[in-house]
Amino acid sequence: MEADFFQKGLQTELEKQGVDFIYFVDISHLTDKQTKGYSTAILFGIALSKDYLEKVAANPDYVEQMKNNKTIKSDEFHLTELKTDKIADNIEKYIVSKGFKAYSQSEENILKTGYYDNENRKTPLPHKTIAGLAGLGWIGKHNLLVTEKYGSAISMCSVLTNAPLDSKRQEPSIPLCGNCNICRDICKTNAIKGKTWYCGIEREKIIDVFQCTTCLQCIVQCPWTKKYMNKNEKAHTHNNV
Description:
- With 241 residues, the protein is of the alpha+beta class.
- It has one domain (3-231).
- It is 37% helix and 13% strand.
- It has helices at residues 3-16, 32-35, 50-57, 62-69, 76-97, 107-112, 127-134, 182-186, 203-206, 217-220, 223-229; strands at 21-26, 40-47, 102-104, 138-139, 145-146, 154-161, 238-239.
- A 5-stranded mixed β-sheet has the order 3-6-2-1-7, with helices on both faces. Strands 4-5 form a two-stranded antiparallel ribbon.
- The two termini are 18 Å apart.
C-alpha cells in the first residue's frame, strides 16, 4: 500500500468522524519512554462550541453546579473528550486493520496499559506536547495548549503509530501570553503560578495540578479563547499535509 494513499484514507476516516484539525507529527527524536517506540503521532481535535463557552464564561460556578446537580454526563466538554477518545480508539483499530501497529492515547487506554502515572497525574507524552511539535500552538500560563484560532477551547487526542506517514515536526512555539495573567488571577485555588512556559520547565513551576479543580474558567476567560468566541466563522478541518 502506498504511503500517500494510506495517509489520504486515514485523513478521510478522521474527517468523517467530525474532527476540526489533523496533524501528522514526527516524534522520532523523543525517548522510547515517551513514544513507546513509535515514530509518528496522529493528533486531532474538536473545537468547543461558542454557545457552550459563553455559558461557562457567564457562570464561574458552572462546573461546581454541574457536579452538584449530577449533570456532568450531558456537559459538552465532557462529551467532546469522550468523543475524541473514542475516535482515537477507532483510528488505532483502523491502522491495525491495515497491517500496521498503533497505540491510542485515549484516557481509557493509557490507564489500562499503565501508561498514565496516577500518583503524579501525568503521562510521558501529553497531547499538548505533540501539538507543540505540530506547530498548533503554545503552552499557556494555565499549562494548557493555546492556539491562535481556538484559544484553549479544544479537546484533543492522539494515536502513535509505525504506519508510513508523511509526518512533520516544528520547534515548540514561544508563548504569546506576554504579561497577561488573567488565568492566574481568576484561579480560585491559586493553582496557576503565572510563570511563562519554556522548554524544560518543571510543570510544578507553572501549575499545582493537585490544587486544580478543573473549573474551566482559565480556558473560557483566556483572551485567545475570547477572540475565538467573538469570531463569526465556522471551524474547518485543518491538516499539515
